[in-house]
Amino acid sequence: MDLIIILFTVLIGSLLTFFSGFGLGTILLPVFTLFFSLEIAIGATAIVHFFNSFFKVLLVYRYVNWKLLLRFGSTAIPFAFMGAWTLGKLDSSDFVIHYNFYFLNKDVSLIQFCIGVLMLLFASIELFWKKKEFNFSGSMLYIGGLLSGFFGGLSGHQGALRAMFLTKTNISKEEFVATSSTIGLFIDFTRLVVYSTTISIIGVISIQSTLIPAICVAFVGSYFGSKLLGKTTMKSVQYLVTFLLFIMGLLLVFGFL
After folding, report:
1. Is the pLDDT of residue 79 over 90?
2. N or C: which end of the chain has fewer CB within 10 A?
């Protein structure tokens, strides 16, 4: 049953990334966290997300806006390295936050607390950024790359920030998906290289019976998502994912996961 839930999540997530404002990592990390330790969940999400980005790039590479990619990627890639390195430091920290308030008596590691806060932050971004009028261009794209790269390397939450900036550059939906997917692929590769030296790869490999089917299902979702690229964003699904992020973020922050 656990595998079915994970595969269903991967299928829906990889499908929706083609015409929604959130990425596969946004929806997959909370689900992986339900079944595996946070460290393994982050590593596993990065691997599935990498292959999903790879499949998407194969399907839509001809639409890549290379000028925009170079602007955004020039800061995204080096800061993805920094974010992934920061994750390793958080994971090795012995710092513990202790809650003792009525029925709540929990110890929360630094990495649990930080990832939980990030989930809450990006849930807020997913919910509110489209309601605001932004116009990002020029030097702001470098800042967007910096933020997307760093948080992508740290927790995998990169889609919301990347979408916030790229959708305001007056490119077509096809260019947006292709360019965003290619940047995401570079960020994923960068963080996986760093993760291989900072987190337990053995632990991630130990769940290969889950990872391999998930990667295959991601390809299926990406293929059918490319066929539905012209469809309208599914608002109800975005709100559901945002709600899930809030819940999982709170559970991590207060030590229930």
Report:
1. yes
2. N
